[in-house]
Amino acid sequence: MSFNQLDTLYRQVIMDHYKKPRNKGVLEDSSITVNMNNPTCGDRIRVMMKEENGIITDVKFDGEGCSISMASASMMTQLIKGKDRETAIKLAHRFYDMIQGNETDEDLDLEDAEALQGVSKFPARIKCATLAWKALEKGFKDELNHEE
Fold it and tell me: Domain NIF system FeS cluster assembly NifU N-terminal spans what residues (predicted)?
C-alpha cells in the first residue's frame, strides 16, 4: 500500500470515529469521572469509567472539540473497554510514544488509534489527540489519591 493510500485510509478512520463516535454519552453509574480541557483550541472532554474487579467494564465520553480530539476519545474508549487498569495505562503510554513519533519496542496493538500517528507531524495537534488519554490517566491517579 502506498503512503498516499495509507494516509487516505487513516483519514477515513479518523473521520468515521468523529462522525460516528463509539461510546459517546453519559455513564450514570461510573466509578471514575474526570473532566479535562485543552484551552489552546477549546477541546473539552469528560471521561467516565466503570470498573469491576480491576477491569474496565464500561467507558463513555462526552464533550466537544476538533475531529482529532473526539476521534481519539472514541478510539481510546473502544481500546480500553474490557482491559485492566495496568494494560490501559500501558496503552496510553504506547499511544503517547506513537503520537510523538518515538519508536518503541512495546508490542501493544493500538488498533484504530494508529490512524492518529500522522499527528506527530503537527505538534500543535498533539494535545488534541492526547486529551482523552490524559483524562484516563488523571482519573486513575485521582482515584488512587482519593483512596489514601
Answer: 10-128
* Grid cell in block for residue 46: 469528560
Cell numbers 490524559 correspond to 134
DSSP annotation of 40: T
- Asked if 61 and 34 touch (Cβ cutoff 8 Å), the reply is no
Half-sphere exposure in the Cβ direction for 70 (13 Å, CA):
19
Number of domains in the chain: 1
pLDDT digit string (tens) for the chain, length 148 residues: 766 777 888 899 999 999 999 999 999 999 999 999 998 889 999 999 999 998 999 999 999 999 999 999 999 999 999 999 999 999 999 999 999 998 877 788 999 999 999 999 999 899 999 999 999 999 999 877 766 5
Contact between 65 and 131 (Cβ < 8 Å): yes
Expressed as residue numbers, the domain containing 46 is 3-147
Q: Domain holding 43: CATH number?
A: 3.90.1010.10
